[in-house]
Amino acid sequence: MTKPSRLASTVYGLVGLSLFIGIWQLVGAYELAGLTWPRFTTVISYLAEPSRWGLFSRALQATLWAMGVGYIVGGIAGFSLAVLSAVFQPLRPMTDTTSAVIHAIPAIAIAPLLIILLGSSVAPAALSALNVFFIMYVSTVAGLSATTPAHRDVFRVLGSSRFQQLCRLELPNALSSIVTGLRLAAPASMIGAIIGEWFGAPRGVGLLIVSAMQNFQIPLLWSAIVLATLTSAAAYGLFGLLERVIHSRFS
Amino acid sequence: MPSTTASIRLDRISKSFSLGRKTIAAVNDVDLVIGTGEFVSFIGPSGCGKSTILRMVAALEDPTAGHVTIGDMPPSDLARRHRLGVAFQDHALLPWLTVRKNIELPFRIANRPVDDRYVDHLLDLVGLSDFDRARPKQLSGGMRQRASIARALVLQPDVLLLDEPFGALDQVTRRHLNIELQRIWSESKITTVLITHSVDEALFLSDRVVVLSGRPGRIVKVVPVPFGRPRTPTVMRDAVFHQLSDDLTESLEGYVGTAEA
């Protein structure tokens, strides 16, 4: 199968998006899904109303802050643990199990615990960090261990130390995988932040979603969801660009 | 820099691998001294353990019995002192580095300052001066192997170990690189071990050709190559060359059937 050209994939993408929006609009217009499904145009005009921008930007700022903190803290933690387990191989089963257990705990279950432990203003960032941590740990470990036997042989014959092999072979080799992890971690950090906010953060997109739902403010609810989706997609796309640059350079 | 090239002594080495509950003998009682500045090729049917012999000289495997010594040291000591040069069938260049940076890599691993003039000289010697800033994926297969050989030579190692470096190339490129390798080698006269399955390649490049049996690899015969140096491609049209080539091919064919037995 040949890969579709860039133009073709852009066109297909736009057709898919238009279909999605068209069906959304129709379902809303004919109330096929009841009163809780507004038209696409209703949601967009709700979002576009300047008097609401303050509300949205305050919420978005809080969520982005939690995402950013979670992304950095979780990313550094996941990356460091992966490098540590690569240097001290005996640690590997332990770090693998630990991160798998952390990942296995449903965010929704650990959220109340984190709120009690850390307070409701820190919980979104903490949940976001947990989500990012696992993705970065796995992608770094996978990247570090993906060196070819021929490369490792060359380094051994040249008399390389373990540290040199890490810095000159394994880390540059892992970069592609790490950047892919960074891209996947972007939406994951958003999910973590929103779930954290869900349980009573002082502000944020998650809070907006909960309170809109409880007060039956349907257009606000949908607007918050659209906002979250756009933010998440933008972060994903941004890291997609970075990924493309790194992949062409490092593989 | 003074040449410190050394002799290689294979003192009755054997190697076996355990595969599940079975033990498979790969190399059996190989005994050979490769002189200082000598170029020796190992040929043999596939799976005869010829690469295993090279890996033992490169300190990548330990013999099950016997010893390898280079000069008066075990190979692992030489590796630690950055005095081994190696090129494999897989060029194993780092894809994120330019050709020049790849050739400089051994200096960085040895924590020595990069000798730019020598790197320039080697780039020129292997015909890659115009490609020093290219990345491996922008090069042809033959060019990558040349870069890989330049990397093996850059620290002026005591021994040069070549494991089918041209094995994945087409015949024309391979012949061309054989001629170049002969020219490059004549400049340094480093003690060299070449693993190959090409009889003509072995004859054209070597001082002696070692024929191995099918698994487990034993030395069947050692054939001295009578041609002087430097050698030009005309050697390959010599009647003696053809005679030796036929003899070697014949002694190999005797073992093709038994290799998998």
Structure explained in plain terms:
The complex is a heterodimer of chains A (251) and B (261). By secondary structure, chain A is mainly α. Chain A has helices at 6-29, 40-48, 53-87, 92-104, 107-118, 123-144, 149-157, 162-198, 205-214, 218-250. Chain A has 10 helices and no strands. Chain A starts with 5 loop residues before the first helix and ends with a helix. In chain B, helix 3 runs parallel beside helix 5 (141-153) and helix 7 (199-205) packs across helix 8 (239-256). By secondary structure, chain B is of the alpha/beta class. In chain B, the strands form 2 sheets. In chain B, strands 5-6-7-3-8-9 form a 6-stranded mixed sheet, sandwiched between helices. Chain B has a 3-stranded antiparallel sheet with strand order 2-1-4. Chain B has helices spanning 50-57, 75-80, 99-109, 116-125, 141-153, 171-188, 199-205, 239-256, and strands at 8-19, 22-34, 39-43, 65-70, 84-87, 159-163, 191-195, 208-212, 219-224. Chain B is globular. Chain B has a domain at 1-83 and 159-168 and 190-261: P-loop containing nucleotide triphosphate hydrolases (Rossmann fold). In chain B, 35% of the residues lie in helices and 23% in strands. The A-B interface holds A 148, 150-151, 153-160, 164, 168-169, 172, 175, 249-251 and B 58-60, 79-84, 86, 88, 90, 92, 94-96, 105-106, 108-110, 161.
Which tags fit this structure?
heterodimer; A: 251 residues; mainly alpha; 10 helices; 81% helix; 0% strand; globular; B: 261 residues; alpha/beta; Rossmann fold; 6-stranded mixed β-sheet; 3-stranded antiparallel β-sheet; 8 helices; 35% helix; 23% strand
